[in-house]
Known about the structure:
The chain is 17% helix and 23% strand. The protein is an alpha+beta fold. A hairpin with a 2-residue loop joins strand 3 (73-74) and strand 4 (77-83).
Amino acid sequence: xxxxxxxxxxxxxxxxxxxxxxxxxxxxxxxxxxxxxxxxxxxxxxxxxxxxxxxxxxxxxxxxxxxxxxxxxxxxxxxxxxxxxxxxxxxxxxxxxxxxxxxxxxxxxxxxxxxxxxxxxxxxxxxxxxxxxxxxxxxxxxxxxxxxxxxxxxxxxxxxxxxxxxxxxxxxxxxxxxxxxxxxxxxxxxxxxxxxxxxxxxxxxxxxxx
Length: 210
């Protein structure tokens, strides 16, 4: 059983425009938002973060590398966050909300986070655990890093974290349901085989050119 709780989110990062480099989800602080919204409306201010579902149009038009998600809803969780990268970074799709806890530095982990990066990004470290030789999802090898499963397509790494209110099987169920967001190859639907990264590339015997 894979245990893949994502990194905890500091309260200061709990908004739609969190810094690049963190696998994040939007945190809808509904209890606190009541007071914040009323104060903002009274003062004629703009709220510092979005409380509605994110617009996926930019992700659909993203052309640097293939992006994958599980749609605008997965099981009981709505899509709540999209973070797009620069050409060499990674994208994050967050599902569901969580409640920051703690006094000095409140933090929490959203139920589901899908992080997608180019296949060659730090591949030697990500593929070091050779469990991908024995484990596959829809024909694509699945490794592990930071206690989270990472699927290797022919063009991208897809890493899945679980968090608050989720169960240990969630990451693998999400990988089973992966589909393309944009039109960069390999483009995949919600079922059928996923074009896999060659084992020689994952082993370091062949150069990664994705």
